[in-house]
Amino acid sequence: MTEADEKAKRKSKASWRPDLLYSLVLFLVAVFAIGFAIQKVGVLSGDYSWGTAIFFLGFGLFTITTGFPHPGFGHISFDRVAQVACILVLGPVDAAWINGLASFIYPWHRMLGGTSGRTVLTAACNNSGLMSLLILLCGSLYQYLGGPVPLFALDLRTAGLLLLLMLSMQFLNDLGMMVIFYLRNLHPTSLFNAFSSAVESVSVLLAIIVAIAYTTADPEYFALLVVVLCILMSVLRQYALMRFRLEALVEERTEELRVQSIEFERQATHDNLTGLVNRRYADDYLQREIEVAHRHGREFTIALADIDHFKEINDRHSHAVGDEVLRRVAKILVDRCRKTDVVARYGGEEFLLCFPDADATFAEHICNQVRIAVQNANWSDIESPTGEALRVTISIGIAESLDESRRTTVLNEADTRLYRAKNEGRNRVVS
User: Fold this and answer.
1) Is the per-residue pLDDT at 362 higher than 60?
2) Segment 36-85, tens digit of pLDDT
3) Where do the structural domains in the chain lie, given as residue ranges?
4) CATH of 279-430, one of 3.30.200.210, 3.30.450.20, 2.40.50.180, 3.30.70.270
5) pLDDT tens-digit readout, 248-281
6) 354-357 long-range contacts, CB within 8 A, separation 24+
7) The pTM is what?
C-alpha cells in the first residue's frame, strides 16, 4: 500500500468517527419513528392547513437562529419555544417532523464559514434526530396523560403536565448530549449551565403563551405577540452574548492574575539567573527540615559550595561570562543531586546543597562527583572577551546535622569546612 493510500485510509477512518455514526443512527431512528407515527395518525391531523406547518417551521428556524454559543459546548437557543408551542397546537407527531426539519436545516449555513461537511452533517443529524425523538416521546407522554392538544386555557392539572413535559424534554436532551460528550471524550460537567437552564424554563413559559394565543386570539393580535416575542428573544440573545463575553473576559483576567501570582511567588523564592531556589527559601527549608530530622531521628546533611576564584572570572572575562558559569554550575549541581535533594543559590557564587535522609559519607560522595563534573566540564565554548581559556573549579564544605544542631550551627560548620577547602588549595571537598 502506498503512502497516499494509507493517508486516504486514515482520512476515511477519521471521517467516520463515533459521534458521526451515533448521529446518523439517531437520525434514522427518528425518521423511522416519525414515519411509523404518521402512518397511524396522519400529517396535520387537526383542523390546520399547511400554512400552519410552514409558520411553525419558520418560527422554529428563527428560535434556533436567535441562539448563542454554550460556554462549554454547542449552541443554546430558544428552540424550545417553537417545539413546545408546536406540540400544544399541532400535537407531538407534527411537532416532531416540523421541528426536526428545522433542526436539520439550520446547521448547514456553517459551511459558508469554513466548517467541514462532516462536522455540519454530524450536527444536523444529531440535532434533528434528538429533537424529533424527544418531542415525539415527551409530547406523546403529555398527550397520553391527558394533556390538552390544542391548548386553549391553563389549569392546575395542565400546568403540572406541562411541567412534566418540560422536565422530560430537558432530561432526554441532556442524556442525548452526554452521549455526544462521551463519544468526543469531553467532560460532562461543562454541559450544565445555570443560565442555559433558565433559558429553557423561560422558553416553555413563552411557548405556552404562543400556543394559547394561536388557538384563541385574533390573527392580528397573535402576529403582534409573535413580533414582540421575536424582539424579546433577540434582546435576550444579545444579553447572553454580552454576559458570556464578560465571563470570558473575567476568566481571562483571573487566569492572568493567577499566572502573575505564581510568577511573583516563584520570583520571591527563586533566583532569576540560575533558576535555583534562593537563600530565603533555603533558610526556611533548613529550619523546617532540621526540626523534622531531630523529631523523627533522621539523618540530614548539608554542603556549602563556592566557585573558586569567581571574582577573577568576572574581572578578567566579564560579568556575562561569570553569569554563564553560574548557570552551568547550577545545572551540574542539580543533575548530580537526587530529586529529593535541594540545591539553592545561597550567595553570589555560593551554593547550598541539602541532603535529607543522608549522612556525611553519602554527601561527600555526591559532592566529589559534583567537583569532578565542574572541573571536567567543557568551558572552552564560553567565549571570553580576552580570548583566554576558562578554567572553573569548585570547593565544598560538608556538615551533618546532629541532635543538638540548629540551622546556624550546621551552616557555620559547613562554612568552616568550606574555608578549609579554600585554604588547602581549592578544588576539593572537606567533610
Assistant:
1) yes
2) 999 988 888 767 788 889 999 999 999 888 876 665 556 677 888 999 99
3) 3-258, 279-430
4) 3.30.70.270
5) 788 888 888 888 877 777 777 888 899 899 998 8
6) 354/282, 354/285, 354/286, 354/289, 354/300, 354/301, 354/302, 355/300, 355/301, 355/302, 355/303, 356/289, 356/293, 356/298, 356/300, 357/298, 357/299, 357/300
7) 0.57
